[in-house]
Design brief:
Elements lengths: L14 H5 L16 E4 L3 E7 L5 E7 L9 E4 L1 E2 L4 E7 L6 E8 L2 E2 L18 E2 L26 E5 L1 H5 L29 H8 L3 E4 L3 E3 L17 E7 L10 H17 L3 E6 L11 H5 L28 H18 L3 E4 L7 H14 L4 E4 L27 E3 L1 H8 L18 H8 L27 E3 L9 H8 L5 H17 L3 E5 L19 H4 L4 H5 L1 H16 L8 H7 E4 L6 E7 L9 E7 L7 E2 L5 E5 L2 E2 L8 E2 L5 E6 L1
Parallel strand pairs: 10-11, 10-19, 11-14, 14-15, 15-16, 16-17, 17-18, 18-19
Antiparallel strand pairs: 1-2, 2-6, 3-4, 3-7, 5-6, 7-8, 7-9, 12-13, 20-21, 21-22, 22-27, 23-26, 24-25, 24-27
Length: 655
């Protein structure tokens, strides 16, 4: 994630204002699973948890904005802090809001946190029959086959970026439906959008936030861009990507069509979710229903701010833990989502994350869960309870991003001019080795020399997300152009090739940022979270400019998919099978993989990463055939005993 504009930071409440809410144990916990709206043709029920309220009402409207209310209706106090109301008759299509009275003061009109359909900009909920939002064939939609978590090759993509550029050849530019179109081409006649994803061969598309976020006016989506890390309504698809943001059914149906289209092309769908903070603080629907409860407080009684966005949610408190779990379960069941990337996961407590994992794996055993194992600021949650990278071994089937291999490959994201292994920095060999074995303990890896971790933190290969770039910070091509500005573009391209080669031949779960396969640039902009399309849009002309580069990355992906020895799922097998070789050259890493019997048709594999320094020829002996030599795929599978090694290259041999 990236920081939100400072205008979203809300003033903290005084100690006195929070004092009556700090004892969260005194709040009743609602055990039911029916908070929010329940529709039927004969009556509609709304349930809202607000134990501090003394009165509550909901207001019905004909439109999603403006107009006089059709009526307001009192909610009745129930057990466990719940307020309930029921409207007789078929209310389908109408819009609603609610408000509560606390300490004699009525809140603003808000929607309930569990709202599943809204009109434009999420101001009013909408009453829908969710079955009517299903596209044709939805009930037969199935996720593509997926055996092991380490089989995943994830592709991080922003919905608008994928299609908005004129070169995309996509009609529904910037929309969910843009990624459902087939047969789209760039001006050179090469595939774009959905067809490109299938051609590339990735297994999962990771969509940057597609829940309803605050910063973009859904009625004028071309006026302002945002990544979407500012949650407004967690259980509603974002309306700026829909063809009609006013009718809540449209965004729901079109997002389902997107999921369905990806599934039909053999690609699973991961949602980027941001439960660690909300866009609004005092004015959020959570805080207006139960002031202070859903957020952690600092030592002065104000909102703590580990998200660096004005607040941090309290995942350890039962009703927010319940909300996270039920929200994620809803996306899996209603939208057939195949995984979640959890933003600033280090803000959440380990117990909550493990409960979520257990529940979601019961529903979908092959679901993929991963997150950022850090915070953006100080949190009052004790460190030993946080879902941090250092605690990956305590997480149940949840991966963390490895900033160790990320910055070892290309240099620190915090120092624009810092170099990494592929750009000529010495001393990165231990960190690269650490990445090769997916952050597991290995007797040939000196973890004390790893740039950040200093010790192994993974217990399973699937605990590690192996990556070199994401939406945050500079994309790889821009990082290289800044840190090695004195090197030629062709040399930077070889660095980029080597970086992706390291990722795709290392263990763990591989993660690629959209467009890296044809050297995507954001024109040097580091933090493009609200930059215009001219910076963020994927320029599909790059695919024709770097066709050979794209074909190489595609071949690397196929290599990984075809050979299980690059993606072990068992930690002991991984540790036992990988042995590092002494290279005799500075800035080089070499290793051999002994493939377990029956797991791979290549019995042995040798891999060499060569940095910027000159290297002696690699004497490999008899019986080794070439798959990749010096960043180039070798189709003739030559049997070479001595291989001249060029700087900035990947070489892969096999028996």
């Amino acid at each position: 994630m990236r920081l939100l504009p400072i205008i979203l930071l809300m003033p903290v409440l005084s100690t006195a204002a929070f004092s009556q809410y700090l004892d969260t144990n005194r709040y009743p916990v609602y055990a039911g699973k029916d908070l929010g709206l329940t529709y039927s043709p004969t009556h509609t029920v709304l349930k809202v948890w607000s134990p501090t309220a003394t009165a509550a009402e909901w207001i019905l409207y004909e439109k999603d904005a403006g107009g006089d209310p059709l009526g307001s209706y009192a909610l009745e106090k129930q057990a466990q802090g719940v307020w309930q109301g029921a409207l007789a008759g078929n209310q389908k299509g109408k819009y609603y809001s609610l408000r509560v009275q606390i300490n004699g003061k009525w809140s603003d009109e808000i929607v309930d946190p569990y709202v599943r359909a809204t009109g434009a900009n999420g101001k009013r909920g909408q009453i829908l029959d969710m079955q009517e939002t299903d596209p044709a064939g939805w009930k037969s939609d199935r996720s593509p086959a997926f055996a092991h978590k380490t089989d995943a090759i994830i592709y991080e993509l922003h919905v608008r970026d994928a299609s908005i550029h004129p070169s995309s050849g996509i009609r529904q530019k910037g929309k969910y439906l843009g990624l459902t179109e087939r047969g789209t081409k760039n001006p050179a006649g090469q595939s774009t959008g959905l067809d490109h994803l299938a051609e590339l061969g990735i297994t999962h598309v990771h969509l940057l936030p597609v829940f309803d976020f605050y910063s973009v006016d859904e009625t004028h989506p071309d006026k302002k861009y945002n990544w979407g890390y500012d949650p407004q309504n967690y259980n509603v698809p974002e309306g700026s990507y829909a063809t009609n943001p006013h009718d809540g059914a449209v965004r729901i149906r079109e997002f389902k069509q997107l999921v369905q289209a990806l599934h039909q092309r053999g690609i699973r769908v991961v949602m980027d979710v941001v439960y660690n903070h909300t866009a609004l603080t005092e004015g959020s629907n959570f805080n207006q229903l139960v002031p202070g409860y859903y957020y952690r407080q600092d030592e002065k009684g104000g909102f703590s701010n580990a998200s660096a966005c004005g607040n941090e949610t309290a995942s350890e408190r039962p009703m927010f833990r319940k909300f996270m779990l039920e929200s994620m379960r809803y996306w899996v069941e209603e939208y057939h989502i195949d995984g979640f990337r959890v933003d600033l996961m280090g803000i959440h407590d380990i117990e909550t994350m493990n409960r979520i994992s257990d529940e979601l794996h019961r529903i979908k055993p092959d679901i993929l869960l991963y997150g950022e194992g850090w915070t953006a600021g100080k949190s009052p949650l004790p460190e030993d309870q946080r879902a941090l990278k250092a605690h990956a071994h305590r997480l149940d089937r949840i991966a963390v991003f490895s900033d160790d291999i990320r910055d070892a490959i290309k240099g620190s994201v915090f120092d624009h001019h810092d170099k990494g292994f592929v750009s000529g920095k010495a001393g990165m060999e231990s960190s690269i080795r650490f990445g090769v074995v997916a952050s597991l303990p290995h007797n040939q890896v000196d973890a004390s020399k790893v740039i950040y971790a200093k010790q192994a933190y993974a217990a399973q290969p699937h605990h590690t997300i192996t990556y070199a770039e994401c939406h945050d910070n500079h994309v790889l091509s821009d990082k290289l152009s800044i840190s090695v500005a004195d090197r030629s573009d062709s040399l930077q391209a070889e660095m980029h090739r080597l970086a992706l080669g390291i990722l795709l031949t290392s263990q763990g779960i591989v993660f690629l940022h959209a467009g890296t396969e044809f050297r995507r640039t954001k024109k040097g902009v580091e933090n493009s979270y609200e930059s215009p399309d001219s910076i963020n849009a994927i320029d599909w002309n790059n695919k024709s400019q770097y066709t050979e580069f794209f074909q190489y990355v595609r071949a690397l992906i196929q290599l990984r998919k075809q050979h299980a020895s690059f993606r072990f799922s068992d930690p002991q097998t991984l540790i036992r099978s990988i042995r590092f070789e002494e290279t005799g050259s500075a800035g080089a890493v070499s290793f051999q993989i002994e493939s377990p019997a029956g797991q791979d048709n290549w019995k042995k594999i040798r891999v060499r990463y060569s940095g910027m320094y000159p290297s002696d020829p690699w004497v490999v002996g008899e019986g080794w055939r070439t798959a990749i030599v010096n960043n180039r795929v070798v189709n003739e599978n030559s049997d070479l005993r001595v291989i001249p090694v060029q700087p900035l290259t990947l070489t892969v041999l096999y028996q």
